[in-house]
Write a structure and sequence with these properties.
Blueprint (H helix, E strand, L loop, with lengths): L2 E9 L6 H17 L4 E3 L17 H14 L7 E10 L2 E10 L2 E7 L23 E6 L2 E6 L2 E4 L2 E5 L11 H7 L4 E5 L8 H15 L3 E5 L2 E3 L5 E3 L3 E4 L2 E5 L8 E9 H9 L15 E4 L24 H20 L5 E4 L4 H21 L1 H8 L11 H8 E7 L5 H14 L2 E6 L1 H15 L5 H26 L3 E3 L4 H6 L20 H13 L12 H4 L16 H4 L3 H13 L4 H8 L8 H17 L1 H6 L27 H12 L2
Parallel strand pairs: 1-2, 2-3, 8-17, 9-10, 10-11, 18-19, 18-21, 19-20
Antiparallel strand pairs: 1-16, 3-4, 4-5, 6-7, 8-9, 11-14, 12-13, 14-15
């Protein structure tokens, strides 16, 4: 029996925040050593940060990353650690992992398969390493092996799959298995998305089984650079069995997950596999050998632990709450602002944002304790002023209801109820005089009266826009972050007023669809996340039909009357934007699913979607950053590119009209 204790650490890193990143790395290594870990896997590019974007091309960044690597070497005494950093070799920049053992660099493995889809854009900065290629790189005056290597110490063999490499068909683990490795480490920067953790667990388990190894997976944690949220998933499996899982969506700067594995057991498991045929000629090729003594261990069973919220029936609601709460927490502290300001309309979107901030405080305090939560948030001065979580919310969140003559008591009361329930400050501004002043001035300038019959859209937009300066002023006075409340369904069709309700530095809901937001709010009303409480006050929001409330009273304005049913809108978006179907193909795909609607009406709605999509790309280019919580985002800067100017699908929509008329 040959027992080795391994560890996987999740780190909440920040691009170019060298000292913070080193601090997290050092603390994770120190705890791992204290707990008797011999091999520790840290996340991808953990020294520099994963989201450095075009700063990766800075020579100064390359040098600083190498200097930080050198500064961390003394911290690795008595332990083997995988550290990620960018590295220039033959004038190509590579995403590498450095294996350090007992204070010495042993070599670098470069990533072969780069992530270039969705929010990932690695091919812009990095070159893929060629399979089977090896060389020597100079780092701070010393030469080290770089390339397609595995490492051997005391008869133990260790290799790497770096993030994307585990998601492709030709996994490097296949070559490593033929060389008889005992461990595969996977340092990753794999962003959060609904249900994605199940996929990770599958490839970790299958990798450990198919390759006959112990597999150690680590990931980044939290909102690293603005848009992507990382779960901090740490997984350890051996020979097809999950040994340990770490906590996800944690508010801590780092977490450590450990397990004891039996190397002899995995070797015998591999030897019993009839299809396994070791490549005897390759065992000495691409190998870096060094001395390292593994501390003796006694057998100990450590069952894999799954957080209780992971087992709930409302798993998606829990994931959404915890991911956005963590995203808000990290965005607030990393942007060095002191709180949030929210234009609270009494509708579903702004109410959802207020609830998410409340849950950010509830979940963060429950995990870290009040003092550490406030210290990490960068507002330790609140320790004496805030006794309860609601006290903290009151110090962090100001909600502003801004009325015009078209506003009603229903939304005003709903906004007040929600603000009171979460503990936020609630301010009311009557902006009707400002709105009417603009209308009067412009009417005089254009020498005609502006009327709803002829100027509907303009009169709606000016109401939304006059709400922006006052709430920005409040945010500036408090050094706070103004939050926008647009959701993805509205983003798709531009159903928002630029420089009005889109005003803000961050749009927490910009990546999520309206039907889910309404579903989530009902869950908030009745259940709420585990470890916190429901918020019954949102009932007054849930019973309303979504409305912009910008037309005169009595017009019964609703969002769905202006646009189309939200569930249909999102189905059209998925079919057209995600699946890249033409208007006719979208109609053919959705008609059976939405058979309750007349074919001509369905055709009108599909045409409306395509027209509004094309006209409003310029708006999507200007929306505040949003969080990626599922893999159907519309952010043109990171996910879904579309020309600002286009032909507007005129030919294709003509074909749709002909098709519908022929039915």
């Amino acid at each position: 029996m040959k027992l080795i204790k391994v560890g996987s650490a999740a780190l909440n890193q920040t691009p170019l925040d060298w000292e913070n990143n080193k601090k997290n790395i050092r603390e994770a290594i120190a705890l791992a050593r204290k707990e008797g870990v011999s091999i520790l896997c840290l996340p991808e590019l953990c020294i520099s940060g994963y989201g450095c974007e075009d700063a990766f091309h800075s020579p100064a960044l390359q040098l600083t990353a190498q200097q930080c690597l050198q500064e961390l070497l003394p911290d690795t005494k008595g332990i083997i650690v995988a550290l990620g950093l960018p590295l220039l070799y033959h004038n190509g920049l590579f995403n590498t992992v450095c294996l350090v053992a007992d204070g010495e660099v042993k070599g670098f493995v470069a990533k072969k398969f780069l992530a270039g889809d969705g929010i990932h854009y690695e091919p812009r900065w990095f070159k893929p390493w060629q399979r089977g290629k090896r060389g020597e790189v100079t780092v701070l005056g010393k030469n080290y092996p770089i390339g397609d290597y595995y490492f051997e110490f005391g008869g133990i063999k260790l290799g790497f799959e770096i993030c994307e490499e585990a998601w492709v068909a030709e996994r490097p683990g296949s070559d490593l298995a033929l060389s008889g490795v005992d461990f595969i480490l996977n340092p990753s920067a794999s962003h959060f998305a609904f249900g994605k953790d199940e996929i990770r667990q599958r490839f970790v388990l299958e990798g450990s089984r198919a390759f006959g190894v112990s597999y150690v997976y680590s990931d980044l944690l939290g909102n690293e650079s603005g848009r992507a949220i990382y779960d901090g998933a740490c997984l350890i499996a051996s020979a097809g069995k999950l040994l340990a899982t770490g906590p996800r969506l944690n508010f801590s700067p780092w977490t450590l997950t450990t397990a004891v594995v039996d190397v002899d057991a995995t070797r015998m498991s591999q030897s019993r596999t009839g299809s396994f045929e070791p490549n005897l000629e390759a065992t000495a090729i691409g190998r870096v050998e060094f001395d390292f003594k593994i501390a003796p261990l006694q057998p100990a069973a450590v069952p894999a632990k799954v957080p209780s919220w992971e087992k709930t029936a409302s798993h998606k609601e829990e994931e959404f709450t915890r991911s956005v709460a963590l995203g808000l927490f990290d965005y607030l502290r990393k942007s060095h602002t002191k709180g949030f300001v929210l234009s609270l309309s009494g509708g579903a979107d702004s109410a959802s944002v207020a609830c998410l901030i409340s849950y950010m405080v509830d979940l963060g305090v429950a995990e870290l304790g009040k003092d550490l939560f406030l210290e990490r948030l960068g507002v330790p001065e609140l320790k004496k002023k805030a006794e309860t979580t609601q006290d903290i919310v009151r110090e962090l969140l100001v909600c502003v209801y801004q009325a015009t003559e078209n506003s009603g008591s229903v939304t005003r009361n709903a906004a007040s109820d929600v603000a009171k329930a979460v503990g936020a400050q609630f301010l009311e501004l009557d902006v009707d005089d400002v709105y009417k002043s603009y209308v009067s001035k412009v009417s005089t300038a254009v020498k005609r009266e502006l009327r709803w019959e002829t100027d509907d859209g303009s009169l709606q937009n000016i109401q939304a826009r006059v709400r922006s300066p006052g709430v920005w002023l409040i945010a500036n006075l408090r050094n706070a972050l103004l939050l926008s409340t647009s959701n993805r369904s509205e983003v798709a069709v531009g159903y928002a007023t630029m420089d009005g309700d889109t005003s803000g530095g961050l749009s927490p809901l910009g990546g999520i669809d309206k039907p889910f937001i309404r579903q989530w709010l009902k869950w908030v009303e009745l259940t709420g996340p585990e470890g916190s409480s429901p918020l019954p006050a949102v009932h007054s929001v849930n019973v309303q039909q979504p409305t912009a409330e910008l037309r005169p009273k009595g017009t019964e304005q609703t969002d769905e009357a202006d646009l189309m049913p939200y569930d249909l809108l999102d189905a059209i978006e998925s079919a057209s934007i995600r699946d890249k179907r033409s208007p006719v193909e979208v109609f053919q795909a959705l008609q059976p699913q939405f058979s309750q609607y007349d074919a001509k009406q369905l055709g009108v709605w599909i045409e409306r979607f395509f027209v509004l999509w094309c006209r409003n790309q310029w708006k999507r280019e200007r929306y505040a950053p949003s969080f990626h919580v599922d893999d159907e985002n519309l952010d043109p800067r990171t996910w879904c590119r579309f020309p600002i100017l286009s032909g507007g699908y005129e030919r294709e929509l003509g074909e749709l009209r002909k098709y519908v008329e022929s039915l």
